[in-house]
């Protein structure tokens, strides 16, 4: 059992009622999990206010409450600690509780609208191949070297993060690559972590429901860089219009990478084919299986980060050429009738445009591109017409369907996508609410050499409707359907 006062180290405390010189069992921010002698941190959330559940937490045996406001009635024998910011307090306490594990390894944070999973997962693969013990905290999974753990968030809550970082310490992990989402930063999930370096991929339209304005979204991402120490490195994409902005007033050692401008790390695309692309990085050529100009950026960011972390340049290039695509990122197969089916996690306008442009530049004849796409429920609604427009404009045929409608009406989401379709493209679109049916229709419509893109869900293996998740795997379904149709 730990002492409360020890884990409060570094927390901005406004007032205390009771003693902090007490032992406690576990740390919680959800009253529903609280047990005897636990600490409960009350957080004001987006749906409800944790302060409402203080009494319940105490009934369940909690002896310490961390809150922004004391309840009207205080219970004897319970310690109340008033803090300026409960989310920040939770993050710092979680780091202290797990003995600040981020300080015992090299933690690299990756932020940006698109490319975080790709960059972190490939850095994980690359450092594994280089012979290190490595950690990964990503949308798809958490890896403690070889051991895999499931996750429901891109950036998990501070307890989950620090718990796994401590496991990494115990396993002897030297490097950990972690996605830092804008929700994660806004909710201070990554506060109290010591980052050895941070990477910015790009910034485009997403999450404007949560952050309200693009400037607020951008400034949230920037906080990762604002928090870096002078010893850390900050690596940014110079070709992105917000790349340099991320480095303003940043104390870390600053580096840039670019394809179009004069960055510290530069690359050029020499050849682009369906099965890979040839890049020139600094003065060396590199063949990679990952295609599309967006992946050239990802590869260059990885190269630069690996160099900044001390790997030898030629070794990095050799290992980069061996890397496989990340699950659900331009994952494809070619059927009997040479129909190419691609599953990609493009769920933002920019990602969808990039993937479709990449497909279109690789077309060799007049094969059709049939896109199946939806937009998530309870997420940024303003993306919907834009994605509707992009899918219909850049495909021969677009089938609008459902992608995790959550609590919303799937039909209404689809109608919002349809609203973005220009009159000249209306003939190209079909709307089919049931995603399985939509994929089946795409397979039925496809002829020899055509290309099917199933976008938005990538590696996800579920469809979430009204709080229920049912098994759903785009890749498996499109493959089985083409096989069943004997195509
Ligand atoms: C909008 C959002 O991000 N919400 C996150 C937030 O929940 P919240 O603010 O809604 O919490 P709330 O329900 O209002 O509850 C407030 C507090 O009361 C507590 N509570 C509540 C009920 C009760 O009975 N007792 C109790 O103590 C809750 O535990 C919480 O501490 O804090 C929770 C705990 O950390 C998160 O699980 C939850 O993520 C939700 C499920 C979510 O879907 N988040 C997505 C949008 C997200 O975070 N995505 C990003 C990736 C985005 C990207 O693509 O970049 C991610 O990093 O995963
Ligand atoms: N560097 C990039 N620039 C633009 N688009 C990209 C880039 N890398 C990947 N994409 C596109 O974005 C999709 C999502 O990529 P990835 O999963 O790596 O992003 P992410 O930032 O982790 O997303 P999330 O915010 O959901 O965690 C890919 O399937 C691809 O279509
Ligand atoms: N990290 C993203 C994932 C979106 C994936 C898409 N399939 C959806 O459900 O909207 C988010 O939370 O907005
Ligand atoms: Mg991700």
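Q: What amino acid sequence fits the structure above?
A:
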């Amino acid at each position: 059992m730990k002492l409360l006062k020890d884990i409060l180290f570094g927390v901005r405390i406004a007032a205390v009622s009771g003693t902090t010189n007490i032992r406690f069992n576990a740390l919680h921010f959800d009253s529903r999990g609280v047990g005897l002698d636990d600490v409960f941190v009350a957080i004001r959330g987006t749906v409800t206010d944790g302060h409402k559940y203080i009494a319940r937490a105490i009934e369940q045996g909690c002896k310490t409450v961390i809150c922004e406001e004391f309840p009207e009635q205080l219970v004897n024998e319970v310690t109340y600690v008033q803090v300026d910011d409960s989310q920040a307090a939770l993050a710092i306490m979680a780091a202290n509780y797990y003995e600040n594990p981020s300080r015992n390894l090299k933690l690299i944070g990756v932020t940006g609208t698109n490319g975080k999973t790709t960059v972190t997962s490939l850095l994980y693969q690359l450092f594994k191949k280089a012979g290190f013990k490595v950690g990964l905290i990503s949308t798809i999974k958490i890896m403690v070297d070889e051991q895999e753990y499931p996750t429901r968030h891109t950036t998990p809550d501070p307890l989950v993060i620090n718990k796994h970082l401590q496991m990494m310490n115990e396993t002897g992990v030297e490097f950990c690559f972690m996605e830092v989402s804008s929700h994660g930063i806004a909710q201070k999930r990554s506060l109290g972590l010591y980052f050895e370096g941070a990477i910015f991929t790009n910034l485009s339209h997403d999450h404007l429901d949560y952050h309200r304005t693009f400037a607020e979204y951008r400034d949230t991402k920037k906080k990762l860089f604002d928090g870096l120490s002078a010893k850390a490195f900050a690596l940014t994409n110079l070709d992105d219009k917000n790349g340099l902005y991320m480095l303003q007033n940043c104390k870390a050692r600053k580096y840039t990478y670019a394809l179009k401008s004069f960055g510290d790390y530069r690359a050029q695309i020499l050849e682009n084919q369906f099965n890979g692309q040839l890049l020139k990085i600094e003065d060396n050529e590199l063949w990679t299986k990952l295609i599309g100009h967006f992946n050239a950026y990802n590869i260059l960011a990885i190269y630069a980060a690996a160099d900044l972390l001390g790997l030898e340049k030629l070794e990095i290039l050799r290992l980069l050429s061996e890397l496989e695509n990340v699950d659900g990122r331009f994952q494809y197969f070619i059927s009997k009738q040479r129909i190419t089916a691609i599953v990609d996690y493009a769920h933002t306008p920019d990602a969808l445009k990039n993937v479709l442009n990449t497909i279109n530049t690789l077309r060799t004849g007049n094969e059709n591109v049939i896109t199946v796409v939806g937009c998530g429920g309870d997420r940024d609604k303003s993306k919907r017409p834009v994605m509707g427009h992009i899918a219909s404009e850049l495909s021969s045929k677009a089938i609008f369907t459902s992608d995790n409608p959550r609590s919303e009406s799937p039909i209404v989401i689809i109608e919002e996508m349809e609203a973005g379709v220009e009159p000249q493209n209306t003939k190209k679109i079909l709307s089919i609410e049931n995603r399985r049916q939509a994929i089946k229709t795409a397979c039925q419509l496809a002829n020899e050499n055509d290309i099917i893109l199933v976008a938005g869900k990538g590696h996800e293996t579920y469809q979430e409707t009204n709080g229920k998740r049912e098994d759903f795997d785009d890749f498996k379904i499109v493959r089985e359907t083409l096989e069943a149709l004997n195509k």
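Q: And what stands out in the fold?
A: The pocket of 2,6-diaminopimelic acid (ligand 3) is lined by residues 154, 347, 376, 379, 403-404, 456-457, 460 (CB under 6 Å).
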